[in-house]
Amino acid sequence: MNKTGKRILFGKILALAILTSLVLGVNGGCGRPAEPAVIRVGGLKGPTTIGLVFLQEWSVQGQASQTYKFTMAAAAEELLSLLVKEELDIALLPANVASVLYNKTEGGVTVIDVNTLGVLYLVSGDREITGPENLRGRTVYLTGKGTTPDYVLQYLLRANGIDPSSCVLEYRSESAEVAALLEQYPQALGLLPQPFATAACAQNQALNIVMDLNEQWNLVQGEEGHRMVTGVTLVRNGFLQEHPEAVETFLQDHAASVTAIREDPDGGARLVAAAGIVAGESVAREALPYCNITYLEGEEMRQALAGYLQVLFEQDPLAVGGALPGEDFYHIP
Prior knowledge:
Distance between the termini: 59 Å
Number of strands: 11
CATH class of the largest domain: Alpha Beta
CATH superfamily of the largest domain: Periplasmic binding protein-like II
């Protein structure tokens, strides 16, 4: 072959190589970034994170389907800060807080599942408390003005014909403060989420769970009403758009972890105690049936969460950030 022929052949080979690389770049890579080396997940030290404990254990043992880094915080504000700074990809938060964040970020987050239903219980040594009507004129200690316990309690009081101003609502910054107060004054009334309600009763035999607010909520709502939704899992939209497969894999892992704690509550109690969510396996084991750990996704998730947020919005629009979220708030695969 002469020099001219060789140059022509080389040119064809080079053109073919360039064309092949372009095709692979478009079809093979699909124009998407590579999957993340680590998925950063944040949860609160409470019931919303209990459904994740098996996944955390699988991750530590190298048995998870992808690599996770878990962060546990005492307050929702810590996780919100990390999300805004894009130092978290996925977070488990109170349902109304997720709605507030959606509004503040102008739709920058999406809820991908519901992880916890009603977990609020009234704890006291006063055995005469049987329902909301017994709270008239009483002092109730609870966490955080303008938080889920506050909104739920005031909703139930009004629904039962009781003006919340007829009760004295004393707010504390953490559940531990309410529990400590009850230990000192057993006849006081404290509104606590699980597993802290069970832990408080375990530490003081004079205390009992005297009212299940989830049960009271269902009585008000009726069979066709909306469920109480405590915790949801949300994702930053930037992460969801760049790594949809990683998010779908997380959902599968989360569902498997929830199933595992239902099938192995003893193992789950051990992991809950090891994670520092509650002190002691025995307390964790006793609390698990009351923690309402669940996994709702898709349309079932949307219906449950949208209905709950509607109830809060009608009570106080600020409870959900001033406006109900749009349909893009709900991840429907």
